[in-house]
Amino acid sequence: MTCSGVKPCANDEMVAISEIEFGDLVQIKKQLISVISLCKERGLLHSTKASELALALDPLPKDELPPSVPFTEEDAQDLDALTLAKAYFDLKEYDRAAYFLKGCCSQKAYFLYMYSRYLSGEKKKDDETVDSLGPLEKGQVRNEALRELRVELSKKHTAGELDGFTLYLYGVVLRKQDLLKEAVDVFVEAIHALPLHWGAWLELSNLVTNIEMLKSLSLPDCWVKDFFMAHMYTELQMIKEALQKYQSLIEAGFSKSTYIISQIAVAYHNIRDIDQALALFNELRDQDPYRIDNMDTFSNLLYVKSMKPELSYLAHNLVEIDKYRVETCCVIGNYYSLRSQHEKAALYFQRALKLNPRCLGAWTLMGHEYMEMKNTSAAIQAYRHAIEVNKRDYRAWYGLGQTYEILKMPFYCLYYYRKAHQLRPNDSRMLVALGETYEKLSQQVEAKKCYWRAYSVGDVEKMALLKLAKLHEQLNESDDAAQCYMLYIQDIFSCGEQLEHAEVSTALRYLGQYYFKNKLYHEASLCAQRCCDYNDAREEGKALLRQISQVRDQIETLPTCLFFVQLK
Q1: Ranges for the Cdc23 domain (predicted)?
Q2: Is-contact 71 97, C-beta < 8 A?
Q3: Residues contacting 390, CB < 8 A, separation 6+
């Protein structure tokens, strides 16, 4: 398979991408330079990622630079119209660009003609959304150009007249009209026609819902596929596999790539390895201080760590760079949220959505803010929009579960928490939430399974064992309850948690009484002594120590009494 339209070799022979291995970094560099040029000619922004990868590789000598793509007769005839239209396109005068391209014959001109019409429809849709509706009602506005574009592109597709770029556009149109199965097929076809176009890979990644679907796709065997697989592993929460893939890419020669550093940082963010993710984002900021991409994810980490000064600095820095970027609005929203100014935070997330109604993070974060403001109906709408954008967003499913939990609708909770758990099977928070819901539905067996599983996968919040112990206690399963309380205390102390942990005293009180009832007075005494370290359990600890002392006195006097009885 060859890269349509790209001539990476100096001898003008097309090099099959599948033949190029990572060891041949010179050929990869040539291909990147060529595809960057092709994307820029067509007004596609995905050339940015290719440029980042190209910068990570060593520069080529002048005599090894790839030649420019030769003009066809059709290109020559359309040159003047295409040059003028591209100037209007760059000024975002899409209707004007399309007008001057109408009737052009070359593939390049046809793509820009159709793409201008598509972007014109998107711009009008966004303008109408901003002017007449709030962000929560954005789904009511449609791109009116999509239907005509689909009809025209479908005819060309049937006739086999679409190149890799136009196939990509056809796939986008199908996806926008919710024809997802057809869109997947067209994106795969676009990738086969032009494997180096990252935009087609990225659009395909948004439609892959699980690992089985990913394995079923027929994808070209080329070096770009490794980047796609690493990206998909991250999206599907297969973080171990993603990190291995990115490490192999670094070892292959992309060690200087800021794109890979950012993706690894996002992967660590997804598994809540906050310190590692923060270190990588700080490294990324050092290498690319004016970068805005992924800074909203960086701000999420700073928010979780309650790092107010650092989050404030990041927000001010991004405002200076570009205050009208979606990521900047999300960072400012997180800053106000950390300061508990939830109305202001929600306002900035709404601004982000006016700039990009498909911004997944903004929908989810706005849902969180509405939850803080006790506006459950708005929170539900925001979370549902997040799921529309990306059905793999576990945070939105989890947020819906929490919202319906507040509304005391446990069957709805169960549905949404199950969805979140399917996406994050090893996340203890999803399992604990499921366990709590099963408890409310009186399904204690299922609840116990969830709590134990949450402990087994690594309980982030250290609450699974405690809830399991309390459930055993309610069911009068005293031995099991005691075992869970003991494991809970060991877990808390081994992790270096503060001894004032909210429920340690509860566990110690129960264990003290349990050991006392089972006549294990030494263990009961130890628990009672530890209870005295906590204000809420001090009196009970002292009372238990007095009981133990009385029992011990009785035991010590018992042999003397028996001796006198025998004498009589």
Answers
A1: 27-265
A2: no
A3: 206, 360
Rounded (5°) CA angle 536-540-546: 150
The position carrying tokens 């972007």 is 119
Length of the chain: 568
Q: Which of 390, 452, 449 is nearest to 419 (CA)?
A: 390
Question: Domain residues for 517?
Answer: 501-551
How high does pLDDT run on average in the chain? Answer: 85
pLDDT digit string (tens) for 414-471?
Answer: 999 999 999 888 888 999 999 999 999 999 999 999 999 998 888 778 888 889 999 9
Q: What is the secondary structure of 253-269 as a DSSP string?
A: IITT-HHHHHHHHHHHH
- pLDDT band with cut points at 50, 70 and 90 for residue 11: very low
Helices (H), 70-145: 73-90, 94-101, 107-132
Listed in sequence order, the residues at least 6 apart from 491 whose beta carbon sits closer than 8 Å to its beta carbon are 459, 462, 465
Task: Please report whether residue 547 resides in a domain.
Answer: yes
The tokens 């598994």 sit on which residue? 271
The residue to which tokens 């009589």 are assigned:
568
Closest CA relative to residue 53, chosen from 15, 17, 25: 25
What does the block give as tokens for 121?
């429809």
pLDDT-derived band at 328, boundaries 50, 70, 90: very high
Please report, in angstroms and rounded to a whole number, the separation of the first and last CA atoms in the chain.
Answer: 108
Residues near 340 by beta carbon (within 8 Å), at least 6 away in sequence: none
Domain count of the chain? 1
CA distances from 340 to 178, 297, 333, 362 (A): 38, 19, 11, 17
- Looking at the predicted structure, is the pLDDT value of residue 16 above 50? no
Residue showing tokens 């994307």: 39
Q: Is residue 304 part of a domain?
A: no
Tokens of 431: 């399992």
d(CA 89, CA 100) in angstroms, rounded, equals 11
Instruction: Answer whether residue 520 is part of any domain.
Output: yes
Residue 529 placed within a domain: yes
- Check residue 150 and give its pLDDT: 92
Helix, strand, coil abundance in the chain, percent, nearest 5: 75, 0, 25
Q: How many CB atoms lie within 10 A of CB 91?
A: 10
DSSP characters for 379-433? HHHHHHHHHHH-TT-HHHHHHHHHHHHHTT-HHHHHHHHHHHHHH-TT-HHHHHH
Distance CA 559, CA 554 (A): 9
Residue 204, burial from CB neighbour count under 10 angstroms (0-12, 13-18, 19+):
buried
Nearest Cα residue to 49 out of 39, 41, 64: 39
Rg (CA), the chain: 31
Looking at residue 6, its pLDDT comes to 38
Looking at this protein, which amino acid is placed at residue 500?
Answer: E
